[in-house]
Amino acid sequence: MSAKIHIVGTLQDAQLSLIHIPLEHYQTYLQALLRLILPPKPDGEDYEISSSWTNRYPFLNISVTPTECSLVCPKSLGKELFGQASATPANGAHAAIISSEDYVVMSVEGEGLEAGKRVLELTSPLALAGISIFFITTYFSDYVIVPAKSRGQVIRALEDRGFRFEKSAEAYVNPAARHDRNKSSTSSFGTLSPSTPPPATVDELQVRTFALLKRREIVPKVDADIRLVQCAGRRDNPNSFLADEMGLQNGLTKCLINQPRFLSLTLTEDEPASLLLDKRLITHFDANHVLLGNTEDFLVPIILDLEPLPLEATGIVCGLAGKLAGHNPEGNFQTAIEMSYLSTARTGTVIVEEKDLQHAMEALRVEEGDTD
Hints:
- There is one protein chain.
- By secondary structure, the chain is of the alpha+beta class.
- 25% of the residues lie in helices and 25% in strands.
- Strands 5-2-4-3-13-14-12-15 form an eight-stranded antiparallel beta sheet. Strands 7-8-6-1-10-9 form a six-stranded antiparallel beta sheet, with helices on one face.
- It is globular and about 55 Å long.
- The chain starts with a strand and ends in an 8-residue tail after the last helix.
């Protein structure tokens, strides 16, 4: 099946905000976070026959990592729950930072490419066009989040790389691409206009990426105590639908109340909930009945603190994915590493299998000779 890309939501509800919450203010916004996973039931709906509570939003991502709490959510909801009047820390400072940019999200569906190569294929045309992005891969689909004002530029960049727009489905299709559905990913806070002209090739982009990381003294770090599980909310048994929905909701509530070390939850309008979470959080769920996926396969997050980067930084996801996919500017052969990427507002997280951790760390290490 060819990879398809389509805009999520209608023109009225597609506008998204990116929100950064410092971890020291997490408890201040806990009630707002809980409201996102405990939405009020629409008037007149019966939970037993209504659609899932996980499909109430066109798109929502809540991520808690060792460095920050980050959200991608509908603009109106972000303003209501995390705006200036919604919560103020005791010292009087407003902690939540809401993006001035509006964003839109595009869903990518299909089969075939390994996760790392898929990230590279989808992000490289946008990086070469100088477009800043988020890239989130869930259990089911990839999501590319771009500034709303760059939507036309994104369309042209994808079409120039062979993607085709299906007007009937409002989707872009790359006939040559096949897309594998196993792993998970995302990019970093950025604005539309880069401070320097975008690179001409993927090789140049990769060199620039690692030169930038070196200049800003950004190094990959691994927390030895964190191992992740990729899974989804189960929705394959009509007889237990209500119990499964409540079990998932209860488990997520416990996770958020206890301020998890690592949790990323993605909700969309047409897919079950997708989770990437610390393996220790599995105990909050009846995993055999509530969660879909192998909860015994552990992944390792490699974290890059991108806060020192300027907001206009672009191409970070593509540069890192290219290195791990074995793409070497010097032409030397490198074995590809299966990876995924989660970027939050100020952090980039490369996710690999435990067996590939050492190889990945070596590939991501900024060499002494890497300069601009």
